[in-house]
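STRUCTURE:
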């Protein structure tokens, strides 16, 4: 039995394998198994993680527990957020007001002053700056929002990617990211340069060379990576 062969019931109270209930047990709530072969569950004792034999992997119970990413899971105890490893061991002493999930071995967190930054797998801050918001890393870069409300991309050491600021930003997907200026949304390359002059009300990342966009007249259009209009939906 592989972790991705285990399914969650429609009411999210138990696990299924080949349409049969696993572990002969129901919970208050379950979340899916991840590649570590572990899953968060909740019963009358609280939240914890089980292995693929349905056994708890530690004795501690939490107010909430989330799935493992890069062998780290977010848990909450008394409104304090932190990460544990695959044996249930706490990875660092500091508490946070919120924790994300590890992506590319780094994690975005929010402190009790409502400032965002990124930490490594041992809770170490990756850079000195703190932001109004910080998103997940993807393909080596993350979006952060500055005090002035503008957004930029940073690398894993916290360095500015290209020196350009935008009203809003998305992560890079196959070399391109979504960006917004005062006129609307568009796509940029890693240097922060626009791929085309048009601006849109809504856009999606490129998918195999094409992206779905919506203009100010609420017309949906397919464009290519040069901004050429291919098809009106």
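SEQUENCE:
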């Amino acid at each position: 039995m592989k972790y991705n062969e285990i399914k969650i019931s429609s009411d999210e109270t138990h696990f299924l394998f080949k349409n049969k209930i696993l572990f002969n047990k129901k919970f208050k709530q379950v979340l899916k198994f991840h590649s570590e072969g572990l899953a968060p569950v909740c019963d009358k004792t609280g939240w914890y993680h089980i292995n693929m034999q349905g056994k708890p992997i530690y004795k501690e119970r939490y107010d909430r527990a989330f799935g493992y990413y890069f062998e780290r899971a977010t848990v909450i105890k008394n409104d304090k957020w932190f990460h544990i490893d695959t044996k249930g061991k706490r990875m660092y002493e500091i508490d946070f007001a919120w924790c994300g999930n590890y992506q590319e071995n780094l994690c975005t967190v929010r402190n009790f002053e409502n400032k965002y930054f990124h930490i490594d797998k041992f809770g170490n801050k990756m850079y000195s700056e703190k932001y109004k918001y910080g998103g997940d890393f993807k393909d080596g870069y993350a979006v952060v929002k500055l005090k002035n409300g503008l957004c930029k991309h940073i690398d894993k050491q916290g360095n500015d990617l290209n020196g350009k600021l935008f009203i809003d930003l998305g992560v890079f997907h196959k070399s391109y990211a979504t960006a917004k200026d005062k006129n609307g949304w568009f796509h940029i390359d890693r240097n922060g340069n626009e791929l085309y002059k048009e601006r849109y009300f809504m856009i999606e990342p490129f998918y195999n060379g094409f992206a779905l966009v919506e203009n100010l007249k609420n017309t949906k259009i397919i464009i290519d990576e040069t901004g050429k209009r291919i098809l009106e939906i």
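REMARK: The CA atoms of residues 32 and 52 lie 11 Å apart.
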